[in-house]
Design brief:
This protein has 246 residues and is α/β, with parallel strands linked by helices. It has 7 helices and 7 strands; from the N terminus they run βαβαβαβαβαβααβ. Helix 1 (17-28) crosses helix 7, helix 3 packs parallel to helix 4 and helix 4 runs parallel beside helix 5 (153-171). The structure holds NADPH dihydro-nicotinamide-adenine-dinucleotide phosphate. The site of NADPH dihydro-nicotinamide-adenine-dinucleotide phosphate has 30 residues, from helix 1. InterPro entries: KR_dom, NAD(P)-bd_dom_sf, Sc_DH/Rdtase_CS, SDR_fam.
Length: 246
């Protein structure tokens, strides 16, 4: 038995990287996991693999830009496992480039996934958390929001908007129903750099990743640490970066 045993955890962006590693670790520690993302073949394979190793997992096609998909993800958790203890709002994209490039479509895409996607999760999960009398919202933000660097303006802005959202939600939750945790990873070796359109920014990000990035399992351990605390203990913010990251 672990402190995570029996918890029901829904994770967006579970088809790769940090979301996948988090699903594997929490399932290994006894959680039932509900996996959301758009690439359903990857989700199905992951859910099968977790079940083959004795865990409980189901896949649920989810595009976080669609509010009804988040309602569906949360609804599946409740329908299959009877409740939702934790929502990990992790789906994200990174379309980096100088502001002067005026990549307005990229800005909109990041706002839609990184910010609106989390808000859709909040809208779906909060009523369930309130009905249950408890629940935990974890989001993957970024050290990009803590140390502002060129080419990351809008990406960092979406992450800081989510940070602000969680802090406000925390202050509005002094009745003890909702816990919030903002996890800020630094450079983590995942497929995230694939979503960078600007070739210079992509190349630079890949070079940095190859040099210093930590594995997604490191972030999964930080999320597990927050999830496994007793309900009266809230891990508000966790920053986890390569030791050599500036
Ligand atoms: P990945 O690219 O490996 O994972 C991103 C995940 O988001 C995928 O599962 C993808 O699934 C999902 N996703 C993207 N768009 C949507 C959408 N519209 N609806 C649902 N799911 C979507 O990268 P990471 O694991 O690194 O990223 C996870 C989170 O961590 C992101 O929020 C990212 O910003 C954050 N982060 C990452 C860092 C890093 O260095 N890697 C550093 C700091 C923060 P699919 O395409 O199947 O829908």
């Amino acid at each position: 038995m672990t402190a995570i045993s029996g918890k029901v955890v829904a994770i967006t962006g579970a088809s790769s990287g940090i979301g996948e590693a988090t699903a594997r670790l929490l399932a290994e520690r006894g959680a039932a996991v509900v996996l959301g993302a758009r690439r359903t073949e990857r989700l199905d394979e992951l859910a099968r693999d977790i079940r083959d190793h004795g865990g409980r997992a189901i896949a649920c096609a989810t595009d976080v830009t669609r509010r009804e998909d988040l309602e569906g993800l949360v609804g599946r958790a409740v329908a299959e496992f009877g409740r939702l203890d934790v929502l990990v709002g992790n789906a994200g994209i990174s379309r980096l480039g100088p502001v002067a490039d005026l990549d307005v479509d990229g800005w909109s895409a990041m706002i839609d996934v990184n910010l609106r996607g989390v808000l859709h999760g909040v809208a779906a999960a909060l009523p369930v958390f309130r009905r249950q009398g408890r629940g935990h919202l974890v989001t993957t933000v970024s050290t990009s929001g803590l140390k502002i660097v060129p080419t990351q303006a809008v990406y960092a802005a979406t992450k800081n908007a989510v940070r602000t959202l969680l802090e406000a939600l925390r202050q509005e939750s002094t009745d003890g129903v909702v816990r919030t945790t903002a996890v800020s990873p630094g450079f983590v070796n995942t497929e995230l750099t694939d979503s960078i359109d600007d070739p210079r920014a992509r190349e630079q990000a890949r070079r940095t990743m190859d040099r210093i990035a930590i594995p997604p399992e490191a972030v999964a351990r930080a999320i597990a640490f927050a999830v496994e605390q007793p309900h009266d203990v809230e891990i508000g913010e966790v920053t986890i970066r390569p030791t050599v990251q500036g």
